[in-house]
Structures are given as structure tokens and as C-alpha cells.
Amino acid sequence: MVFYFTATGNSLYAAKHFDTELVSIPQELKKPDRRYKADAIGIVCPLFELDMPPVIQDFIRDSEFETDYFYIILTYGCHHGGVAERVQSYLEGIGKKADYINTVLMLDNALPVFDMEQQKVLDPEKRVDEHLAAIRADIDARKREVQFASDWEKEFYAGYRNMIREKGAYYVQPLYRVEENCIACGTCTKVCPMGCIRVENGKAAYDTARCVGCMACIHACPQKAIRFATIQEVNPNARYRNPNIPLRELIAANRQK
Ligand SMILES: Cc1cc2nc3c(=O)[nH]c(=O)nc-3n(C[C@H](O)[C@H](O)[C@H](O)COP(=O)(O)O)c2cc1C
Questions:
Q1: 10 Cβ closer than 6 Å to some ligand 1 atom
Q2: Which of 33, 60, 86, 254 could form a disulfide with 193 if both were Cys (CB 3.0 to 4.6 A apart)?
Q3: How does pLDDT run across 195-207, given as a tens digit for each residue?
Q4: Whole-model pTM over 0.85
């Protein structure tokens, strides 16, 4: 059994390599009583700002997992900042523990930092399938290991946190704005894992309180009518979805209504 959260398909693509029983975290979040039992249970999600996204932390905290083997895989695109050790510390703080934590380098979908067209060119160099196969072998062998965090990655993390402390949060709400070329097609409402976008008066509008800033909406909008409210994009014409994940699969994973 593997639980996944995905905005642009990378984490779903990764999750498919580890198990056949795939469970969407956004669908489970609606259930008040969450108890799961399986021989092995995995969590696969993207890295946000060098950490496990708070929505996934909360999902794990508020769910019960009965298993002999609990593993967590974070997909990321550039720097993981030694996240595995921090995830284990978080779990220990809430009375849980993972048997295996690892990261997979995939395409970086962070539009404020990267040009998606350049990322697509770099993608083959990341040898994603090879790394996913190696992690699958670790899981099959029930390997018990938390990915080592190098001093360099830890320093990178500390540097990022210092920058946030000094300059303030990078991603602030309202994160997005909807431009006039919105055709009210509703794609954003279907891919949003938090169900925070609705179409109103012929235009998309979103509830900032529930938004987790995953960028599913901005990547999926066929009109490129969703933009960041204040943050500059590297290439405003480039968008991304994992080429192995069709839009209908992303919608099936994330649609809330
Ligand atoms: C808000 C946000 C923050 C991110 N922060 C990082 C980061 O700190 N380091 C990194 O390497 N990738 C970062 N990424 C890139 C994603 O973790 C990566 O592309 C991931 O594979 C996307 O998975 P998904 O397609 O399943 O959503 C970030 C992406 C978003 C949307």
C-alpha cells in the first residue's frame, strides 16, 4: 500500500514503481478516521522548500499505520537539504518512526526558480528510472535506512532557513492571480488536491486558506491564465506535467468534488 500526493505527476510516477495499491492522500484527507493495515506502507510526496510539505506531515500525524515496514520517499528537483533525517526527527516527535526514508531526483517543477523547458532537457541526466528501480529493490529487501545528510546539504538547508528568517517567507498568500484569458474550463478546479479552486462568474477563483502552494493549478491551466501574484517566473510560457501521467490520472488523484 502506497499513499501519494502529487501536483504535476512526479510523485505518482514514482509511487507506481513501489506498489500496485496506490492511494491518493488528497482523497484520504476527507476521511475522519484513518487507520491502515498492510505488510508494507509507503508515503510518496514532493519536497517543498527542502522539507516534507506540512499537509503530508499532518496526514501522517493524524493517521494510524499498522505495518511491519513503513517507508517514505520524497521526490525533488535540485536540493533535498538532508530532508530524510529531519523527517525521521519529526516522526519521532509524534511517536512514529519510518524504517526507510529516501529521496529521488526528478524534474524540478518550481516555476519561480526554473525554466521548465530547460528542466525537460536536463531530465534524462537525472536517470530517474534507474534510481526508482534501486529504491524498489531496497523496499523489496526491506532495507532499514534513513538517507544520510551530508554537511553540505545541511548547510544548504540552514542557509535557506536563515534567508527566510531575514527576508520573510518566499511563498505567501495570495500566491496566484487569475488573468482575463481564463476561459472557465475548470481544469484547475479538478487538479487542485485541496479543492480550493472554484469557477465563479466565468472565472477561476481560489480559497487561499486551504491552498498548500503545490502549483498543480498553475502548471495544468491550458490557457496559462493562472500566474503568480507577485513572484516572477523564470519562463512564463513553460509548464510541466510528468510525461508518463496523463491529465485524467492527475484529476482522478486530486479531484475533490
Ligand atoms: C512549492 C514548491 C517548493 C519546492 N521546493 C523544492 C526544494 O526545496 N528542493 C527541490 O529540489 N525541489 C523543490 N521543488 C520541486 C518538487 O519537489 C519536484 O519537482 C517534485 O518532484 C514535484 O513532484 P510532483 O510532480 O509529484 O508534485 C518544489 C516544488 C514546489 C511546488
A1: yes
A2: 254
A3: 999 999 999 999 9
A4: yes
